[in-house]
Amino acid sequence: MSGRLLALGLAVLVLAGCHREADQAPGTLEYDRIALPAPAAERIVAVHVRAGEAVKAGQPLLDLDPAHTRASLDAALAEVKRQKEALAEGVAGPRREDIDKARASLAAAEAQARDARSYLQRLMKVAQQEKDAVAASDLDRARANAQNTRGQADAARAALDQLLHGTRSEQLAQARAAVDAAQAQADALRVTLGKLHVVAPRDGRIDDVPYRLGDQAPVGAPLAIELVGDRPYARIYVPVAMRAQLKVGSTVQVYVQGRDQPLAGHVRLLRAEPVFTPYYALSGDDATRLSYLAEVALDRPSDLPAGLPVHVAPAAP
């Protein structure tokens, strides 16, 4: 009889433990994290903070070598100046000396065309007066030369007209666009140069500085990770048996390992989909192992460290 009573008592304890686990969501305390990515693949030349150190907004954290970015910025500024000068040249139009040169070229080309045309006319007249006095090949060359010089004169006249009409509006628009593009490139490099001096974006505490003095982190790699906010939050995994009791805004009790009294909080996020395994892949007792990621905000500020294990239960009605 005593053995049966002992077994019954153990079964009751196991069922009670299962019931308690079903009404509790385990997790850890976390802070909002800000990762400060490397804006350029440059060598770290100064580290001003250590992991665990409290920082204020705007406080220097790290410095990257600015030499390469500064040189690129100088080149970009020089390109801006070149494009502006090209635009100014287009706005001003052709110089008077270039127009005079084009007029002189036109006059010379027309003189050659007249001479070639006169020579052709003389040959044709002689050929008409005396048969076989002029070779057919000479007449063909004279005719080709007259056409060639006439074409050169037309080209010289078109070149002069182009100078007299000035720069086209489309060319000026392209020149202005080139100036804007060069200026945008210079502005982007100026921003990147400023980012090489890494500062804290908010008040908080440095969680990690992954790279050391002299390292060269790739672009986008986190140079520093900062924990921000005046209180942590609980990231928990809600069991399926407890899921129906909670919704966003629900009041809960947060039990922290090492503290006797629970902390009041409320659910600020609750995922609709279970983590790790979709519900349709489970059946029978396996479905009871589903859990849903949730976040619980504490109602009052706290200086508890991140990483502490917690469990969350619905608040008593």
Automatic annotation (TrEMBL):
Subcellular location(s) of the protein: Cell envelope
Alphabetized UniProt keyword annotations: Coiled coil
Family matches, as PROSITE patterns: PROKAR_LIPOPROTEIN (PS51257)
Major subcellular location class: other
PANTHER family noted in UniProt: EFFLUX SYSTEM COMPONENT YKNX-RELATED (PTHR32347), UPF0194 MEMBRANE PROTEIN YBHG (PTHR32347:SF29)
Full protein name: HlyD family efflux transporter periplasmic adaptor subunit
Biological source species: Dyella lutea
Domain of life: Bacteria
Record InterPro entries: UPF0194_transport
Coiled coil: 99-192
Gene3D superfamilies for this protein: 2.40.30.170, 2.40.50.100, Helix hairpin bin
